[in-house]
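yo, Fatty acid hydroxylase superfamily protein is done. seq:
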Amino acid sequence: MIEYVKANVRIPDYLYPRKGSAQMFKNRFLEALTKTHPLTPFIVYFPVVLYLIFYSLNKLNFKFIIAGGLFVGGIFSWTLAEYLLHRFLFHFQPKTELGFKIQFMIHGVHHQYPSDPKRLVMPPAVSLIWAVIFWHLFKFSIGIYTFAFFPGFVAGYIIYDMTHYAIHHFKPPKNRLRYLWKHHLQHHYKAPDKFFGVSTPIWDYVFGTN
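structure:
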């Protein structure tokens, strides 16, 4: 495999950044499913967050402090899920031609074309599947408390997608949030095997990938 050297770090060819956009499918419908407007996660999932909070407080009669604690716990849990998915699923090491194709569709396309504005947030066709998986996982493990925990988890996901879009689309702000830009862009342009956190770098410090 051809490898390039950038910032003294070897970057595999299939992760090397380019300008423009890739065509992933010849079928127009499938190709359209891979492209997403950046506001889509907010439009699709924010009503879910509001409904589940309302349901928790008014139908299940959770105390505000309990619902609030579960909600914050959900956000925090998302940051860990974000890190683990990015590190171990999105960056799994392919060893076959089929593996490379799968890795490219999952995440490699974003590394090759990091400025493609229509592929900076997760397509609903994919995120809805993950939402169902996590909902049932939490329902099995914490039962009724899922109704207050899951909206926090989803809110964390919305923040993640919005942050990811902002980092790639806008100039870094002149405040402390600027560090998020620096952290994530190092993942793209310096070391794709490090800096996996997007909405927060905390887990990179915990697991030593910063």
